[in-house]
Write a structure and sequence with these properties.
Elements (H helix, E strand, L loop, with lengths): L3 H16 L3 H8 L3 E10 L5 E12 L5 E8 L4 H17 L6 E7 L7 H15 L8 E5 L5 H15 L23 H16 L8 E5 L3 H12 L3 E7 L2 E5 L5 H11 L5 H4 L11 E4 L1 H5 L3 E6 L16 E6 L7 H9 L3 E3 L1 H4 L1 H16 L5 H26 L3 H17 L1
Parallel strand pairs: 3-4, 3-5, 6-7, 6-10, 10-11, 11-12
Antiparallel strand pairs: 1-2, 2-4, 7-8, 8-9
Helix pairs in contact: 1-3, 1-15, 3-15, 4-5, 6-7, 6-13, 6-14, 13-14, 14-15
Bound molecules: nicotinamide-adenine-dinucleotide.
The site of nicotinamide-adenine-dinucleotide has 24 residues, from α7 and β7.
Length: 419
């Protein structure tokens, strides 16, 4: 049984105690408002029927409609979805969006499904969840192994069920289907703004700093390009199959094309691609565990939860951790990192760019408008920089880490709304 929900609550409890949160507000936040489990029948390509289990957890809507992604992964379970939904309530409050928190998931290895099976599964999930979804009720978005195409199927199925064109029922859609410009790279972009703001405060120069990235998917591959363009040296990347370390630096565009051709960033030799310019040293394959413990200035976590725990926190040699993934550091790991003076730019702040641009997409859909990318990025930067500075000030005020500072920022807002 996953302890993700419990450990998330433990961290929340600590923040509640520090800021003396009203006990009734904590009681309300302790349990999600609604949990729905669906058993989705799908006719497979071989004619058999397979049942998939899916969830939607609506944690809290005090500040606005439930908002949060849908994850397709074989390890999805209720505890995980509950924890992720709670984090969404907190995250939306950290960046001051008028939204609540929700999350969904389906227990499935989507790579084993054909495109037709994936569509049938998504439409089946939408049919079973439709009574609790809606532009003003609960608005899903992409998460691990879900994408714009999956969101388009949800939009289409929901619109058919309700008989109304409802683009605002999901975000993370392709631009041609009502998506926002800038949404695809928003999570990484928001994290990048937070990172740069922190680095400027520390008076550091990107050119003197190395970066390691765990998880080279949507969030990971975008942040790789951003840090590379800003002058940081990207020295290692990984995906679910393992990692690659190149002391001389990795060009993220090459890593991206290599992953597309050979299915893993590890397989460049197979694809016949070299990561580095000649003379910059050779690359070597490493495991994901080794990647986490590499000496570097910045470690970006953009894969899954519980990557840094009591068992490896003492070995982490990064000075700054940027959490683009949700819950990548567990509560025990977090305490060890704090004691060791490693700064964690926490998930509830660092990856909030995704939900922020989702919010912008939702607003554009409701207003039947399309903002330019320049407007989206300017609004995103303002939101992230303001949130970072509020969280930073809060952590200074209470002499606590940035995660606790972010939790207190969110709890204060939730308390003001709920009471
Ligand atoms: P994604 O599916 O595009 O990418 C996930 C990547 O992680 C893949 O490259 C996969 O190979 C890799 N991976 C899986 N298991 C791994 C492991 N054990 N070690 C190393 N790599 C591993 O997903 P994404 O959208 O980039 O999301 C990544 C994380 O960011 C998730 O925790 C997600 O909840 C979080 N997040 C994403 C968004 C978003 O807008 N995409 C927003 C907020 C938070």
């Amino acid at each position: 049984m996953s302890r993700f929900f419990e450990t998330t609550l433990e961290q929340l409890k600590k923040a509640a105690k520090t800021m003396k949160l009203s006990p009734s507000v904590f009681t309300i936040l302790e349990e999600p408002q609604r949990i729905v489990t669906a058993h989705i029948p799908v006719t497979m390509d071989n004619g058999t029927i397979q049942i998939f289990r899916g969830y939607r957890v609506q944690h809290n809507n005090a500040r606005g409609p439930y908002k949060g992604g849908i994850r397709y992964h074989p390890d999805v379970n209720m505890e995980e979805v509950k924890a992720l939904a709670l984090l969404m309530t907190i995250k939306c409050a950290v960046v001051n969006l008028p939204l609540g928190g929700g999350k969904g998931g389906i227990e499935v290895d989507s790579h084993k499904l054909s495109q037709r099976e994936l569509e049938a599964l998504t439409r089946g999930y939408t049919r079973l969840m439709a009574p609790i979804l809606g532009p003003k009720i609960d608005v899903p978005a992409p998460d691990v192994y879900t994408n714009a195409q999956i969101m388009a199927w949800i939009y289409d199925e929901y619109s058919k069920i309700t008989g109304k064109d409802s683009p605002a029922v999901v975000t993370g859609k392709a631009v041609g289907k009502g998506g926002s410009l800038g949404r695809e790279s928003a999570t990484a972009q928001g994290g990048f703004y937070v990172l740069m703001e922190f680095i400027q405060k520390m008076k550091k120069n990107p050119k003197d700093m190395t970066v390691v990235i765990q998880g080279f998917g949507n969030a990971g591959s975008f942040i790789a390009r951003m840090v590379h363009d800003a002058g940081f040296r990207l020295i290692a990347v990984s995906d679910s199959k393992g990692g690659l370390y190149c002391k001389g630096g990795i060009d993220p565009a090459i890593a991206y094309s290599c992953k597309r051709e050979s299915h893993s960033v590890q397989n460049c030799e197979i694809a016949g691609i070299e990561y580095t310019k000649k003379g910059e040293g050779v690359c070597k394959r490493i495991s994901n565990a080794e990647l986490l413990e590499l000496p570097c200035d910045i470690l970006v976590l953009s894969a899954l939860e519980n990557q840094i725990t009591a068992s490896n926190a003492k070995n982490i040699r990064a000075h700054i951790i940027l959490e683009l993934a949700n819950g990548p550091t567990d509560a025990e790991g977090d305490i060890i990192l704090e004691k060791r003076g490693i700064t964690v730019l926490p998930d509830i702040l660092a990856n909030a760019g995704g939900v922020t641009v989702s919010y912008f997409e939702w607003l554009q859909n409701l207003q039947k408008k399309q903002w330019t990318e320049k407007i989206v990025l300017a609004k995103l930067k303002k939101t992230m920089v303001e949130a970072f500075n509020e969280v930073y000030a809060m952590s200074r005020k209470y002499k606590i880490g940035l995660r606790q500072g972010a939790l207190i920022t969110a709890l204060k807002r939730l308390e003001d709304t709920i009471i």
